[in-house]
Amino acid sequence: MPADLVFPLAAALAGALVAGLVVLLLARRLLGAGAGAERERLQAAEAELAEQRAARAELERQLAEEGRRLAGLEVTAARVPELERQLTERATVLESTREQRADVERDLATARSALQERGEQAEELRRAQGELKAALEAARATAGEQASRIAALQETLDQERRQSAEKLKLLADTRETMTKEFKLLADEVMKTHGTSFAQQNKDQVEGLLKPLRDRLQEFQQGLQSAHTESAKERATLAEQIKQLSDHSARMSSETQNLTRALKGKAQTQGAWGEMILSTILERSGLREGEEYTTQDSHTTEEGQRVRSDVLVNLPGGQRIVIDSKVSLTAFEECVNAEEETGRAAAALRHVTSMRGHIRTLGSKDYHLAAGSELDYVIMFVPIEGALAIALEQDPALTAFAADSNVAIATPTTLMVALRTVANVWQVERRNRNAEQIASRAGRLYDKFVGFAKDMESLGTRLDGARQCYDQAMGKLSTGNGNLVRQVEQLKQLGAKASKALPATLKEEAAADDEGGTEDEGEAQRSDIGQLLVDPDASERHDQEDVS
After folding, report:
1. Whole-angstrom distance between the N-terminal and C-terminal Cα of the chain?
2. pLDDT tens for residues 100-113?
3. Domain for residue 125, yes or no?
4. 305 and 388, same domain (yes or no)
5. Which of 65, 156, 195, 402 has CA atoms 20 to 30 A from the CA of 82?
6. What is the mean pLDDT of residues 541-545?
7. Which parts form a coiled-coil structure per UniProt (predicted)?
8. C-alpha–C-alpha distance, residues 472 and 30, integer Å
9. Could you report the per-residue pLDDT of 123-153, keeping only the tens digit for each?
């Protein structure tokens, strides 16, 4: 039984005992007064008392049992704080264990990611190193092939020159031989026939010598053509040799320039980096002088003059500062190092050089001098492998650059950023064009409204003019008593005139007059007679018609 029911049961038991005692006392007092009835009541009371005692015994037994249970519960309740404390400690230990496990899993994931990134960076560096070495070997092989081709072409040119000289010598010898033969033949003919037959046999001699002369001329033309073709071939061959030589020299020069740029002074490396940056800017779609400018000088708040390689303009007056003067001497030493110790030392110097340049860019406040709202400078690294080696040696390099307000960019990432800027400018230009189109459309609409009102007013005035024209034409030729009919009647009455009215007006006036009544004709004749007597009558008549 629960502990909260023990005390109510004890109270009920005590109440039952008190009630039994009261009944017993009442029975004793009434014992003498009642006879049989009272005895029965007494017996009933005793029976009830016995039941109460039995109930009391049961209640006492239950009370004892509940007391034992209550004692057990009290012992258990006494152990509850300790159990709760132990449970709390175990929960704390379990939570701590879970947190430690989560930390370990995160550290393990970070370590795996870092290991994978370093593996990828190492593989990228190895691939970049292999590509550089392959490019160098290819350049050397190409230079060797070009040298071999130049030597072969030079030998071919010398052989062609020797053959041309032999052909020219053969031509000269043949010409000399044929000249001698011609002279001998002429002398023989003259000796054989004599001078008396010279004039008579001139045609025969010419007939004999002409084929020989023609063949000699053809042979000479053929030799001259062969000489001309040989000269053209020699010129073409010489031009090809010159092109190959120039190409080989250009490749050698570019290879040497790249080597000197990587091994040379910081100024040379900076110029080479600016050249790569200029190429990227040209291919990004931005326009020089519009979306970006180069070699701008600015003055800081301390009065120091700083010069930025490139300033990229953004819509809204913002600018991006790009610097390309990073040193790559240590990177070249790292790539060409044959031993691992030398490579590690060169890589460490390369990281130190990049950190120093980042620190320099962060301290110059390029963005403040250029009036840029962006609070960082982009450091352009023209070789992807240079940044990869630096990050392999110092993974926190980008965080250090971010703390110095410097962003590191390679040709790939910079091209993506500049293409994005170019797209932003295209959107900006489209928006500006849309604003201009909207403004012009508004002005065009206003003009159209004014034009529509003017056309409406013009139509109203044209309608009025048409009405006035119809009224005037009615008085002139189409109305009753029109002027054309009246002046024609005047002419019929004998008025002298040197000109005649147009036939159409006469026909209209006659047709209208034929449709009139005799009274109208009489009225017209009366009007004409009145007009002869009073010239002002017509004007008064017109005024009456108008009124």
Report:
1. 128
2. 778 778 877 777 77
3. no
4. yes
5. 65
6. 49
7. 35-170
8. 152
9. 776 776 677 677 667 766 766 676 677 677 6
Across the chain, which distance is largest between two alpha carbons, in Å? 223
How does 285-318 read in b/e, with b if 16+ C-beta sit within 10 Å?
ebeeeebbeeeeebeeeeeeebebbbbbbbeeee
Residue 359 and residue 415 in contact, taking contact as beta carbons nearer than 8 Å = no
Place of tokens 């009102």: 453
- The 10s digit of each residue's pLDDT in 223-277 is 566 556 656 655 665 565 565 456 445 544 554 455 555 555 555 666 777 888 8
Please tell me whether residue 136 adopts helix, strand or coil conformation: helix
Do 526 and 413 reside in the same domain of the chain? no
Q: Which of 142-151, 206-215, 326-335, 423-432 has the lowest mean pLDDT?
A: 206-215
Which residue pairs, CB below 8 angstroms and at least 24 apart, start in 124-132? 124/384, 124/385, 124/388, 125/385, 125/388, 125/389, 125/392, 128/383, 128/384, 128/385, 128/388, 129/335, 129/385, 132/335, 132/385
268-277, 452-461, 477-486: which is most confident: 452-461
Domain that holds residue 510: 479-546
Q: Which residue has the tokens 């006879």?
A: 35
253-265 residues labelled b (16+ CB within 10 A) or e (exposed): eebeebeebbebe
* Higher pLDDT, residue 196 or 356: 356
| Structure-token pair, residue 211 | 């084929």
Instruction: Give domain status of residue 139, yes or no.
Output: no
In this structure, the answer to whether residues 532 and 425 fall within a common structural domain is no
Q: Which H, E and C letters describe 247-292, residue by residue?
A: HHHHHHHHHHHHHHHHHCCHHHHHHHHHHHHHHHHHHCCCCECCCE
Q: Does some domain include residue 64?
A: no
In the sheet where 377-380 sits, what is the strand order?
292-299, 305-313, 319-323, 377-380, 406-409
Q: Which amino acid is at 46?
A: E
- Is 64's pLDDT higher than 60? yes
CB contact set of 65 (below 8 Å; sequence gap of 6+): 1
Report the number of distinct structural domains present in the chain: 2
Comparing 29-33, 93-97, 279-283, the range with the smallest average pLDDT is 29-33
Q: Do 411 and 384 meet the contact criterion of CB atoms below 8 Å apart?
A: yes
Q: Give the pTM.
A: 0.39
- Rounded Cα distance between 146 and 151, Å, is 9
- Partner residues linked to 409 by β-bridges: 380
Looking at the domain assignment, is residue 306 inside a domain?
yes
